Amino acid sequence: MKIIVLLKRVPDTEAKILINSKGSGINEEGVKFIINTYDEYAIEEGLKLKETVGGDSTVTVVCMGVEESTEIIRTALAMGVDKGIHICDAALEKATPAVIATVLAKAIEDNGFDIIFCGKQGIDYDMAQTQAFLAEKLDIPQVNVIAEFKISEDNKKVFLLRRIEGADEKVEADLPVIISCAKGLNEPRYASLPGIMKAKKKEIKKLTLADLDSSGASEEKKSTIINWLPLPKSGECKIIEGEEPGEKAVELARLLREEAKVL
Amino acid sequence: MTTEGIIILIALSAVLFAFVFIVYRLVKALRMGKSEDRFNNFGQRVKSILVYVVGQARVLSQPAGIGHFFIFWGFIFISLGTGEHILNMLIPSFSYEAFFGTGVAVTISFCQDILAFLVLGAIVVSLFRRFFLKPVRLESDDPKAGREAVFILGLIFVLILLMYGIKGIGIIQGKVDGSSAPVSNIAANLLRNNLIRINVVESVFVWVHHSLIFFFLLYIPFSKHIHILGAIPNIFFRNLGLPGTLTSMDFEDETADKFGISVLTDFSWKQLLDLYACTECGRCQAVCPAYLTDKPLSPYRMIHNLRGHFMDEMGSLLSDNDKEYTEKPIVPEVVSKDELWACTTCGACVQECPTFIEHVQKIVDLRRYFVLTEASFPPEVQPVFKNMEINYNPWSFGYADRANWAADLDIPLASDKKSFDILFWIGCAGSFDDRGKVIAKSVVKLLERAGVDFAILGTEEKCCGETARRMGNEYLAQTLIELNIEVLKGYEFNRILTICPHGFNSFRVDYPQAGYSKPVVHHSEFLLELVKAGKLPSGSTGNLKGVYHDACYLGRYNDIISEPRELVSGIDGVDLIELDRHGKRSFCCGAGGGRMWMEETIGEKINETRVNEILEKNVDQIFTACPFCMTMFEDGLKACGNENVKVKDIAELLLEASKESEKGKG
Ligand code: SF4
Ligand code: SF4
């Protein structure tokens, strides 16, 4: 079985995000990048599926992103993924979900696939669109934000559980299918040291748009981000110091009248 | 040769042959272990033998050890006597007197007589302890362990009685000089009128005695008394380095598919020798914070079970044709996972062990296997490792926020200053933990006041790697250590100052292994230095009764015991009380070895146990010199519902006291 996992490089959850001066993106200085946290659940589910199915199944991660994305691909390889495909092209710098999906679809088709796992959304832009575009491009069903995953005996069907408001939803789908994953589905594994060592020797296939015969893909965008704006400064908090509650109340009234001008 | 001589010759040869064969197998089994260099520093090793074997220094560090002291020396002199007797049976002309002169013979006989008596006393006392006092030390869930101990004590008891009988009869017959053997003399008097066929009785005594000795010789290697063979070499080959040292791992070989220890033959020969050396005294168990709070871990049991396992497997390990044999995994077959993760690496067990067994290294090695090879550990540990990897701290704080605590303090950065006297290493707790930050700030204020030329690394500093290392994540630890060394090498300074005993220990033992040695001081030493140099006031406070808790990695591991006490008791108004368990024998707060980041679900909580011990002293404050001890005690106090007692780092205390004393002056 050919198992595909989509991967995205995103700023660390703890990183301080600042809009750059041009408003064209974030200031990357001092920002650490990690595997999109939801993608880790996708990797884990892919690896588990490979263990269940056995045989000559392979897990391949496909990542579209800047040069440095190799680092996160290696991390996935260290977790046990067999192979990496890294699509990297200057023309894709500002790619929107539709464009990304077009490019990913091409790479995935070239590689061959039976099932695709991805994170439910990128924790950077929170768009959650790529998998939908991709399902369309590949003309396969998609099931989002699953809580349980099972595969049929004959490996042709998946049984999924979705946790929705107040109920569980059982879904069945035929392969090939694209499935998005979130926290709670599994516990992503920690890379073992032999895994890390082996990952150094595993193949990462580097592809450009030309390699994928999709030089025009970047023009297929359905939307354009015009500008990023910093959030308006939230009001400052003031703590009123004082010994007596009465004294503090007087001060509060004064501030509300004179500074906040609400009274 | 007499018939007697011939029989003893045959018996002795057979027993010695069997004994040598058994010992040969024991040694051969050690060679199944990995290599480890313990042959350096010969002089120091010989000295260890004199102090710890001949002088029994560690054994004697506890009152019960006096009994062992007598048994040990009694055993040697009794063996000398037995040797003489057997040789005399073989060569009738042999005696110590004939060979070494009367002086030597009389001395040996006298020592033997007195010591053997003391051994009898010691045996009575230890049986009494075992059956009536039942100390924590001797608790064991292996009923065999207790039975064996009693059996051996009984055996020695009988042997000594027989020895007195033989010597007594010798006195009656005029073969032995009674004046040099007071106890035997009493035996002679008792026997004199009660024996009819004295020659028959004598030979019964002799044969029973010698048969028991032969039996004992062959029984030793299969009992806890194997330590008679193992302890002396183990003390000779002991770790001569700093106590906190762990072996370093080599990750060069990229084809390796296993790291750490999972089966017996992964241990080094010295680690296997440890197993022969255990006397089953249980001293390690009696001080183990995990054991004392009802966790499944007991260092004694771990060593006992490992030895049992080693003995069980020895046949298969040594056999040449058993190629199919695969070794049983130590965890979970011999040591459970809960045991493995319960250890705080406090080092109390290693310190107490009279034969210098190294428990902590074994525990860390077993952890290494699970963390590195299997990537398996308590689930709450994974985010800790990930945070350390990505943001270089165990909590989920962004690494870019590391110096936020210092934002409005105008503290000189190493990257600006380049060259300075003191590099103030803040550590993760000082950088991110709310209470830790207060310690860091207090030290900064004191340094500024004393006019110290210092700098901090700011966001260039990363987790020191100490915790990762003791949790078994050697790979992560080495990564962090290397990253830090790269930064440190860029600056010129004389000493590193830490407020955390863990970082302190790491700079003393871990960093030099990675090729970076720099003098490091803990703030308790450094602040005292400043006070003594008159650069800081010793301060004063209102009347305050407090205890100082020794952090394991400061007191036990690094011998910094008097400095914090001197600093604190130098403050006017502080009444410093000692806990029963203090200094090198302090009791862990429960945070070490990565336990800080693990759930404590089994047994009592270690921190609460220690807090309760402290509260019994009715103090106002607990003084600490470790941010992790501080957290553990603040949590412990909360859990005990005590809001009056405060925990203060010695730096906070000094800062407040120096302000206080200035107010006084003003
Ligand atoms: S290091 Fe401390 S916690 Fe660990 S086994 Fe020894 S005494 Fe127990
Ligand atoms: S390991 Fe050491 S301290 Fe513990 S029981 Fe054995 S000899 Fe005693």
Provide a short characterization of the protein structure:
Chain A has 263 residues and is an alpha/beta fold. Chain A has helices at residues 37-53, 70-79, 97-111, 130-138, 193-199, 245-258; strands at residues 2-7, 9-11, 33-35, 58-64, 83-87, 115-119, 142-146, 148-151, 157-164, 167-174, 177-181, 204-207. In chain A, helix 2 (70-79) packs across helix 5 and helix 3 packs across helix 4 (130-138).
Question: How is this fold's topology laid out?
Answer:
The complex is a heterodimer of chains A (263) and B (666).
Chain A lengths: L1 E6 L1 E3 L21 E3 L1 H17 L4 E7 L5 H10 L3 E5 L9 H15 L3 E5 L10 H9 L3 E5 L1 E4 L5 E8 L2 E8 L2 E5 L11 H7 L4 E4 L37 H14 L5
Chain B lengths: L2 H28 L11 H13 L10 H26 L5 H5 L1 H32 L9 H30 L9 H11 L5 H22 L7 H10 L32 H9 L5 H5 L1 H4 L6 H20 L11 H4 L3 H6 L5 H5 L6 H15 L7 H11 L22 H4 L4 E4 L1 H6 L1 H16 L4 E2 L10 H5 L3 H15 L6 E4 L2 H13 L6 E3 H10 L7 E9 L13 H8 L2 E6 L28 H10 L5 E4 L2 H13 L6 E4 H16 L1
Parallel strand pairs in B: 1-2, 1-3, 3-4, 5-6, 5-7, 7-8
Helix pairs in contact in B: 1-8, 2-9, 3-5, 5-6, 6-7, 6-8, 9-10, 10-13, 21-29, 25-26, 27-28
The complex binds iron/sulfur cluster (SF4) (2 copies).
One iron/sulfur cluster binds next to helix 12, helix 16 and helix 17 of chain B.
